[in-house]
Design a protein that fits this description.
Blueprint (H helix, E strand, L loop, with lengths): L1 E4 L3 E5 L6 E6 L4 E2 L27 E4 L2 E4 L12 E6 L2 E7 L2 H6 L4 E10 L2 E10 L5 E3 L1 E2 L3 E3 L11 E13 L13 E11 L10 E4 L5 E6 L6 E4 L5 E5 L6 E8 L18 E3 L4 E10 L1
């Protein structure tokens, strides 16, 4: 475990998966992360790399070869190395090795930088293609925030509010974890998504190409909440395990396979192509109050 802090926040991150473990606000005296109760879901904030979501049959094809990756890829189960540390920032690094090359035939360096700016936690994903040919990959976050946050409130007292008015459907997920071909109406000229346990009985709420760059977790009965900035991420997932007291806000550069997928990796929806020795960066942030 590594801790970074300033006058507002104390944040703890694990080396396994470079997984965010705790976001504690010293001013509100509240913990904002889910407690990882194994009866529901034993993770708190897995990092999704080099895929987001599920591949059809856990298989993809690249240059006429078959490869296998389980849901969300291998980074979340892999030990990262700490390559930089100051009181308010820490950098975790994962590089390709013999084991990764069997599943993902690319040379890479993947840095995750956690840094504090006042009451805001910034999380930067930096992917460098250290090989000599184009690299294809996805990357995303999966942080789970505690709901309810404040004492005396219930799950149904909370809602998500986007920073722009949305007309956006929910893309259903098949029983095999794949994205269906047509969205179902959800946000209709609205900024607000009410949180209920039933919302997630059919798996995650998946959005594509929202107008918004930010979404806030708010309550009608408490002043505590958070603002989540996902600028630059074309897909957003909202999820909770069945009947669990949390909500995941998931910024994705990538998405699960479609039910109509060809399983060709370079043609995968949302895939990112990175040239030799080039670097890709995306960042999300959360401000707690």
């Amino acid at each position: 475990m590594f801790t970074i802090e300033n006058e507002y926040l104390e944040v703890v991150i694990k080396t396994k998966g470079a997984e965010l473990d705790s976001v504690y606000n010293k001013q509100t005296r509240l913990e904002y992360m889910w407690n990882a109760d194994p009866a529901f879901w034993s993770k708190k904030s897995p990092v999704l790399f080099p895929i987001v979501g599920t591949l059809k049959n856990d298989v993809y094809y690249f240059q006429n070869k078959e490869y296998s990756l389980t849901r969300h890829g291998f980074a979340r189960e892999t030990e990262f190395t700490v390559t930089g540390k100051i009181p308010s920032s820490v950098t975790f690094t994962l590089e390709n090795n013999e084991a990764t090359l069997l599943k993902f035939p690319f040379s890479f360096r993947f840095d995750i930088v956690y840094s504090l700016d006042g009451e805001k936690l910034n999380v930067l994903y930096r992917v460098k293609n250290t090989g000599t040919t184009d690299m294809y990959f996805s990357v995303g976050g999966h942080p789970a925030f505690k709901v309810p946050l404040a004492a005396g409130t219930d799950y149904a007292d909370y809602y998500l509010e986007f920073d722009k008015t949305e007309n956006a459907g929910r893309w259903p997920i098949s029983k095999d974890g794949l994205i269906e071909t047509n969205p179902v109406s959800l946000l209709n000229n609205s900024r607000r998504l009410e949180l209920t346990k039933e919302l997630f009985y059919a798996d995650a709420v998946v959005f594509k190409q929202l107008k918004s760059d930010k979404v806030s977790l708010l309550s009608s009965k408490a002043t505590n909440g958070l603002e989540f900035d996902f600028t630059g991420f074309p897909f957003l997932g909202i999820w909770a395990a069945k009947n669990a007291d949390f909500v995941c806000i998931e910024p994705w550069c990538g998405i699960a396979d479609s039910v109509t997928t060809t399983q060709q990796f370079q043609d995968k929806e949302g895939i990112n192509r990175l040239g030799a020795m080039q670097t890709f960066e995306r960042a999300w942030s959360v401000k707690t109050f």
